[in-house]
Amino acid sequence: MSPSFVELFYLVATGLFVFSLHWMNDPKTARRGVIAGALAMAIGMAATWAQPFVQNHGWMVLAVLAGIAVGWPLSRVSLTAAPQRTALSHAFGGLAAGLVGTAKYFAWLGDGPEALTTFRMVAIIAEVILGFITFTGSLFAAGKLQELNWVPQRPVTYFGQNIFNGLLLVVAIGMGAMLVNDPASEIAPLLFGGVIVIALLFGILLIIPIGGADMPTVIAILNSYAGLAAVAMGFVLENKLLITAGALDGASGLILSIIMCRAMNRSYMNVLFGAFGSVAPPQEGGEQGEYRADTIESASQIMEQANQVVIIPGYGMAVAQAQHKVRELYDQLLKRGIEVKFAIHPVAGRMPGHMNVLLAEADIPYTSLLEMDEINGEMPQCDVALVVGANDVVNPAARSDEASPIYGMPIIDADKARTIFAIKRSKNPGFAGIDNGLYFDEKTWMLFGDAKTVVGDLVKELSGESGF
Amino acid sequence: MKESKRYLPRSVIVAMATVIVILGVGLAANSTTTTVLMASPAMAPSHGPGDVDYWGMVFVFLLSAFIGLGVIRRVSRLLHTPLMSLTNAISAIAVVGAILVAGPDYPIEIRVLGLIALFASVTNIVSGFLITDRMLKMFKRD
């Protein structure tokens, strides 16, 4: 295929990618977006493959088949595991970018150093650093989300952590600068290896101090890095399709991470270097009352008499796989003419939009899922707020307690409802290790236990009483 | 969905402007040196270092980044998880780079790196598009 035709197909693919993302603005057209994206990918791949200098077909087909064999099962994972899967595929994306950069460097080094212009070297170094940071960083993030044993779950911090990390980055950039200056010196391959090793290490060091509550932001940032690595690859290979598609991906990750940071009232820098959740929160001795636990029977009686119930899901619902039981509860309440809405906090769960997907999986219509800003005005009229495994996103300390690590974070005003039921696994504080004043509120009743069991019992109680 | 907020904090705008300026200055400095080194290496997909339109690439990057920001900020918040898996699949466009490294007549070590990259990208393409579609099928109105 002649070069102009390749460019023409790349242009078509770019247009389709833009439309693909455009159609994501509405659930009604979103599936069209997936088809457009897949079509664009197929066009880009085929146009590249059909160029005359591409040989080696047998091995490449084998690699593609292996990719399909691994990719297929990865697309069938349960949606509770969607954050891990996403992190894992960021790792694959970073690996691909890093390897292509490395391969291209050594290919050009073999051709003769005059091919390694300053522009290409800068682009290669950027690609390799971004790619390998994304690779190990995402692997560790996936391990944390999967709660693997060899990955520390709690944030790991040590003295001088940020200084050490900063120095490491300075060393990597210094080595990169030496490479740019003289890309074909005797020690150049060694320096290149050094840059790779530091990038790999840096990815790990970047993730270990980050707590579970910050995972949505971190996944979004890694998404953005994977896109930027593709852009750098485009600069290396002088390929405009890589640049456009990578830029779209980078922009998406950037916007998502900004939304996540806003939703926690924290800056980018604070998420990456703040080691959230490692600080012991100030304990106010004794003045916080006792938990008041309630029985399923009385909870269901109060719910039956409500006009409006707002359900606030959190990560606990995902862990317990309680979304289908929540759906049954939703049906039971609707049957009684009670208005039921879901209040979704942007950072509820472990990735952006996590709760929406889980509730959609349980066949709850998306018109009942309301954003924090939309629901907060209605909370004072709400009779019952049911908190299912959410913690920090309903913690009133974010409004009032300046000493709290989450002070200033916008929250769902569950405490303004007339009655609050909170389902909680145990009496321990949540993932971020912060005590929640909502649980000690005099309007709050605790329902201790696994979210799935408790909601299931509520459903049983409600359906039993209605005489079915 | 609500749209009224400013989506780009000032720090991000400053950071983007800085990157663009660095790229531009680097290019301006670079183009004076590369025209001297007009020797053209023979490997297939790459042109000689002198005749590449670097400026064109920077323009393409800048404009597509802005299109990306414009399009993504309109995406419904409901769909942020599918959006992420979709962009994940789109970033597997790295497959093009992998083919360009694995395909030509390079030494075997380099082609092996390309093949691994090809495998990793295809994994992302397949799992990314399929799971996005699977999620989107679940979003129903009533």
Question: What are the key terms here?
Answer:
heterodimer; A: alpha/beta; six-stranded parallel beta sheet; elongated; B: 142 residues; mainly alpha; 68% helix
Description of the molecule:
The complex is a heterodimer of chains A (468) and B (142). Chain A is 58% helix and 7% strand. Chain A contains 17 helices and six strands. In chain A, strands 3-2-1-4-5-6 form a six-stranded parallel β-sheet. Chain A starts with a helix and ends with a helix. About 3% of the residues of chain A have low confidence. Chain B is mainly alpha-helical. Chain B has five helices and no strands. The interface between A and B is large, with 125 and 105 residues.
Topology of helices and strands:
The complex is a heterodimer of chains A (468) and B (142).
Chain A: H1 3-22, H2 30-49, H3 57-74, H4 82-111, H5 118-146, H6 161-181, H7 188-207, H8 215-237, H9 240-264, H10 268-273, H11 296-304, E1 308-313, H12 315-320, H13 323-335, E2 339-344, H14 354-361, E3 369-371, H15 372-376, E4 384-388, H16 397-400, E5 419-424, E6 444-448, H17 451-465
Parallel strand pairs in A: 1-2, 1-4, 2-3, 4-5, 5-6
Helix pairs in contact in A: 1-2, 1-9, 4-5, 4-8, 5-6, 5-7, 5-8, 6-7, 8-9, 11-17, 13-17
Chain B: H1 10-34, H2 54-72, H3 80-91, H4 94-102, H5 108-138
- By helix and strand content of chain A, what is the structural category? alpha/beta
Form type of chain A:
elongated
User: Helix-strand pattern of chain B, N to C?
Assistant: HHHHH
Q: How far from one another are the termini of chain B? A: 18 Å
Helix content range of chain A:
55-70%
H and E string of chain A? HHHHHHHHHHHEHHEHEHEHEEH
Spans where pLDDT lies below 50 across 5 or more residues of chain B: 1-5, 34-48
Question: DSSP helix count of chain B?
Answer: 5
What is the structure about, briefly put?
The complex is a heterodimer of chains A (468) and B (142). With 468 residues, chain A is of the alpha/beta class.
